Amino acid sequence: MVKKLYNCLNCPAYCCSYALIPVTDFDLKRLAKHFGISVKTAERKYTKYGDAEYPRVLRHAADEHFKSACMFLDQETRRCTVYEGRPRICRDFPTQSRCGYYEFLKFERDVQDDRDWVATTN
Ligand code: SF4
Ligand code: SF4
Fold it and tell me: Which of 25, 27, 72, 86 is the most exposed place for a label (fewest CB within 10 A)?
């Protein structure tokens, strides 16, 4: 198992602010099961059209730090509220031992001597 050189518990969840978070057919079924609702209802409530490459993506909501973020991101805890039902891409990211966002965050917090510093995209 690859050792993680990042700590999501110290991060405001930059990865959840991606504009296009793809939802596959399997992801949609898992999400529907998570909420105990039909696939059609889950698709309507939680997804929207993305683009030609990712035609079905998670809906976004207003966010304190970013322009917007996934609707399932808890604004207070900065944690995923559908962890067991989250899409494949959320499970796989960042796919390696390092997370570029976290490296940047750590660097800036060290330089600014501020453990709570957060870059915003608003
Ligand atoms: S951006 Fe990186 S460190 Fe932050 S929550 Fe996502 S995977 Fe974790
Ligand atoms: S489903 Fe969860 S992990 Fe995936 S983008 Fe949304 S809040 Fe983040």
Answer: 25
Q: Give the total number of structural domains in the chain.
A: 1
Residues with Cβ within 8 Å of residue 20, at least 6 apart in sequence? 50, 51, 53, 54, 57
For ligand 1, say whether the CB of 93 is within 6 Å of any of its atoms: yes
Is 35 within the bounds of a domain? Answer: yes
pTM for this prediction: 0.94
- Determine if ligand 2 sits within 6 Å of the CB of residue 82: yes
Q: What is the DSSP string of 7-21?
A: -GGGS--GGGG-S--
The answer to whether residue 100 is domain-embedded is yes
- Kindly give the distance from the C-alpha atom of residue 87 to the centroid of ligand 2, in angstroms, as a whole number: 8
User: 25 lies in which domain range?
Assistant: 8-112
For the Cβ of 99 lying below 6 angstroms from any atom of ligand 1, the answer is yes
Asked if the structure places residue 117 within a domain, the reply is no
pLDDT attached to residue 120: 76
Q: Give a yes or no: residue 99 inside a domain.
A: yes
